[in-house]
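Q: Hi! First time doing this. I have a protein sequence and I read that you can turn it into a structure. Is that right? Here it is:
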Amino acid sequence: MTNRIPHLYLHIPFCSSICHYCDFCHVVYDRKLALDYLEKIKAELAEYDGNAFDTIYIGGGTPTALDHDLFACLLDLIKPFADSAKEITIEANPENLDDEKIDMIVGSGINRISLGLQSINNELLKLMNRKHQAFDFANTVYKLKQKGLGNISVDLMYSLPKQTMEMLKESLEFVVGLDVPHISIYSLTIEENSVFGKLGYQSLDEDMEADMYEYIISYLQNEGYDHYETSNFARNGHYSLHNIGYWDYDDFLGIGAGAASKIKSHRYCNTRNIRKYIAEEKAYDEELTLSVEDQEFENIMMSLRMKRGLDLKLFYERYNCNFLEKYKEEIAMDDLLACKDGHLFCTNGNILNEVLLRFIKD
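A: Yes, that's right. Below is the predicted 3D structure, encoded as structure tokens:
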């Protein structure tokens, strides 16, 4: 194993407005704060000059909430790393992704974009404090394709307050009709510090949430999408290489407020306090060293999320451990785990949590 870090995540915490379900590290856009923030990111990136990242992911927040000058500064920061990267993704919302920013993205070497849709229902969009409508979203997808950026991922949410199955079906049909190659689906979790949490909103009951999830899987598979990970679907091999890095338990570097990193046995998470992050050389909310047992379990937990499962050869190289021998009793308990092409996988992803319990050591 080399010391090279294969994956880079940059967190841009600025948003034009705050979605009511969001509990990520975020703040309403302030140009002076954003300028100082980008200077701090630039300084941190300089420490990794020469590292050839396989993937780069620019998330948030909403990176496209930056004004045009600062957005150009952000894109300049990744230029030294762009040539080696197989995939560079940026998150965006339709309301702040104009023609000029699309041109800037295409010219920067970014080859994948993740768009937040969540729903096309106007009632739900208003409830979430989203600032776009279905037409805006479709128009953005059209413009991106016209500019040659067709590697588009769309985020959808389900189990939203007041959401019906019919609302969900309409959103799925809309997204499939746009012919995008990747769709990510997320069930709503009410976080205490989100607006939803503070207002006392609740997600739908467990039975309805389960019905929605099963419908999503069935519908998207029938439309030619490969359900390659618990929450992700792709056509024609357009998988998220960056996220596969997480699920394969590769090392990754997180830069920015609230960003997490895992490098060998060391894991840490930067402070979510943006001003503290800017002011201090190293400001962590969490820092710990993982035991080999912890690493093995986390590797199992992440990799079994994928349809292809856990890479047994890679597991041996990392931990000098024959997985099939060490965990033969756990594998033999029932027919919920199987092996194929050097991978161990879960035969029923709907009960993944039940399967994982057997690998937790006292």
